[in-house]
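ok so for the tutorial part 2 we go from a plain amino acid sequence to predicted structure tokens. step 1 is just haveing the sequence, like this:
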Amino acid sequence: YHQATAPDRRRAHRALATVHTGDRRAWHLADAAVGFDEEAAQALQAAGAAAAARRGYAEAAAAYERAAELSADPDRRARQLRRASNLLITTGHFDRALAAIDTILGLETPLAQDPRLFHTRGMLLIGTGEFDVGFAIVKQLAEASVTMSDPGTAAFLLADTAMAALIRGDCAESFTIARHAASVLGDGGEP
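step 2 — the prediction. this is what the tokens look like for a chain of 191 residues:
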């Protein structure tokens, strides 16, 4: 196999894809692909969903990452990468999760503008030791959310910012932000 040329290996994978089903078929299609291949991308998406359903989160993340590479459509690619990043966080692969999110941010898609993506990125940066950068992202997002008409979301983001300040070692700022989160919710802490 390893002595075969790349085109011969791809032909072998294409042939194997015709006799296999499910996950094995998906991975053979992916290994047979050159450039974008929507058939392989869709098969890998299904394989990723199946793996996630059986709690094979690392396998599912790999399938979604590869599906994103094979998808020509930026929106579909972004969705696959978002699924992958969520699963990579679950499996503790924070650097790969960040790479997936950064790739999404480079795409011109609505998902690249989703505040939840920036929140996740900021929290991952904090979790991987880039406290100042991550804290700045989370704090800016929390401050912007206060002007929205959703006090529950604003309080959630402010609470995460308070936690980030605490992780950073700034107890005074943490308490100030936490009090702000409570005030956003109003009486009784109910939105």
